[in-house]
Amino acid sequence: MEVNVDNCLEAVTKEIQIKCEKKVNEPETAKKDYLPESVAEDIQLKSEEKVNEIESVKKEYQSESLAEKIQITSEEKDSQVGLEEIKDQTQSATKEDPFAYLDRDDFTSEKYKIEIRNLPKHYGIAEFKKLINIKLELNCSKVKTPNRNGKWLYICFRSEEDKNTALGILNGYNWKNTKLDASNAKAVPDPLVKKRNEQFDDCPDVKKIKLDNAGAEQQMISAVTPLYNISYDEQLIQKTNSIKNVLMDYSRRLKRIKCGQGILNWLKKQQDENNGLPCKLLEIQSLKDDSEKCIGYRNKCEFTIGMDVENKEPVVGFRVGAYNQGKTSVAPIDNISNVPQRMKDVVKCFQDLVRASKFPVFDPENYTGHWRQLTVRLSLKTEQLMLICVVHTENMEESALNSLKQLILSYFTEGAGAVCKVDSLYFQKAKKRAAGEGNSFPLELLHGQGYIVEEVKGLKLRISPESFFQINTAASEILFDAAKDLASINSQTTVLDVCCGSGTIGLSIAKDCAQVIGVEIQEEAVNMAKLNATENGITNAIFFAGKAEEVMNKREFQNPENANDVVAIVDPPRAGLHNKAILLLRRMTHLKRLVYMSCNPKGAMQNFLSLSMAESKTKQGAPFVPVKAVPVDMFPQTPHCELIVYFERL
Q1: pLDDT confidence band for 637 (50 / 70 / 90)
Q2: Where does the record place a coiled coil (predicted)?
């Protein structure tokens, strides 16, 4: 977008003239106090720096008539406002220092970083962390790996002293018959500043075309819902083809590993019977027969609080792009197709609060400001609503923090926000994490109950702020039915619900099986699962908290009452199940069938291969091989698709 500096200067002049008219009756001495000649000279100099390629504008800005108008102003800061507008419109052609963040007082792991090279050919990150933190007690804050099993990695510390101690110990240290090479590592540049500087490298004499609000919103819509302008039938075709590619990749990779001749023979037979695929691919399941449920389906969204591109006005919405892409601005969600209208209305209402408050919006570049994120959970069936207001509290006085909490509480209970009818209102602090701190900070309930109730498959389930629950409630019922049908569950079946969350899957099929035994790493989610079972009158489900690879060693998993018919349903996070848990499932000789549900099939590939590898010293138990697979579209308007794979022992 070409900047019209003439219009900009005209606006500045008009604003100054208006201010002058208000001051016309003030004593003449008040005007002299502001040193008008120096102000004019300062403005002339800054104007030349900002718009030096537009000669006509420079002449106009240096002209006597404009200088006289500016001299009349009674406040130097008024003219500076005009200069800031010009600066914003034309953008400075001066490169920034991408390493300036290192000079700030706040902590960053980039300040105290060392590089480790000459690593062993075979090693694990977990092994290396044990070496650093347990055996050598080096007190590192972070281990960074450029790539999986790379030839070098980085270790970060919290002080210069810790870093130097580690250098002295690790340089030349013999680990796994390999002498490590440790040296100081260069800090990485701030990706946001780096991106801004790249424009000058590419086109040093041309100003960057500035994105307006409409363009930013379109970018965001295309990123959040890339398939929004494609017919739903075409979306389903694309997703089916994507799943086919995943299954074909499984076949290719299985051939390259040590899987044994028996598995290769099985694979060839399967491919001959299934048009090159390793198993039968069933028709994609979706809500296409109820098109209204294909839009506005999300029951949870995390909205960023930031500034819009054009006017630098607070907006509650989604990021236009990632920080490492050089983008921090936020665009509104009015036209996002997968966000329900009530959620949009709530966001707008919260945005009004942010704009009216005296508290600034969080700036991710400088780590200043306070308003940071709004998480919304909404049941489309019960219409219960939960809000989690996340505020950056670094350098925030306790009195200001309490004032902000009270502002939020009053707004949603007595003020304009009461129209939102919030059932559960939470407040959460956010700040830079110190070494050893978890991924989140404690939640504080400001108002209402500590959960909302969701309905699925005839069950009423409590959903807490941190509960995992399928993002699309209506489609989740299709997902659970598909998993149950693939597993051939009956009244004699024991179901091992691995990564059970708050018990949604296991409880939805409990009435159709003999027993459900669940495991989940989050204790709070397990407590919720137990409570959900009690409130729904389910007595044949038990749940355990802990890591799956540890809990599944318990007698309940290794020797269930109905050991003749046991099936595992695995629904892990996007990264997949820990390899130790996969190996433990293989060792369960009474486990004959396994259903793997993945919202990220490519990320689950290593799990699929580990299940199917030939039996060995490390992989005990007969391999599992895929028999059937069914895609389930949980995410209309996006390229993502859930995949359920049904495995049996070979």
Answers
A1: very high
A2: none
Question: Higher-confidence residue: 226 or 320?
Answer: 226
Structure tokens that stand for 328 in this block:
């921090």
Catalytic residue among 279, 301, 599, 641: 599
Contact 636, 287 (CB under 8 A): yes
Position 148 scores a pLDDT of: 57
Non-local (6+) Cβ contacts of 334 within 8 A are 344
Long-range Cβ contact pairs of 38-43 (< 8 A, separation 24 or more): 39/70, 39/71, 39/73, 39/76, 39/79, 40/67, 40/70, 40/71, 43/70, 43/79, 43/82, 43/83
Strand ranges, E, within 359-514: 371-378, 385-392, 424-430, 443-448, 452-456, 459-463, 494-498
> HEC states along 420-453?
HCCCEEEEEEECCCCCCCCCCCCEEEEEECCCEE
Distance of CA 16 to the CA centre of its chain: 45
Condensed to tens digits (0 to 9), the pLDDT of residues 328-385 reads 789 999 999 999 999 999 999 999 999 999 999 998 878 889 999 999 999 999 999 9
- Selection from 618, 548, 615 nearest residue 577 by Cα: 548
571 annotated among ligand-binding-site residues: yes
Nearest to 249, CA basis, from 277, 210, 221, 227:
277
List the beta strands (DSSP E) in 100-208: 113-117, 142-144, 152-156, 174-175, 178-179, 181-184
Quick one: pLDDT at residue 87? 43
Residue 260 CA to residue 253 CA, distance in Å, equals 13
Decide if 15 contacts 75 (C-beta within 8 A).
no
**Is 520 annotated as contributing to ligand binding?**
yes
- In the chain, the N- to C-terminal Cα span, in Å, equals 62
In whole angstroms, give the CA distance from residue 211 to residue 264. 54
Q: Work out the number of other CB atoms within 10 angstroms of the CB of residue 639.
A: 12
Cβ atoms 280, 271 nearer than 8 A: no
User: In this structure, which amino acid lies at residue 416?
Assistant: A
Greater confidence (490 vs 69) lies with: 490
User: What's the sign of the alpha-carbon dihedral 352, 334, 425, 638?
Assistant: negative
In this structure, the chain runs to a length of 650
Half-sphere exposure of 345 (CA within 13 A, CB side): 13
279 is catalytic: no
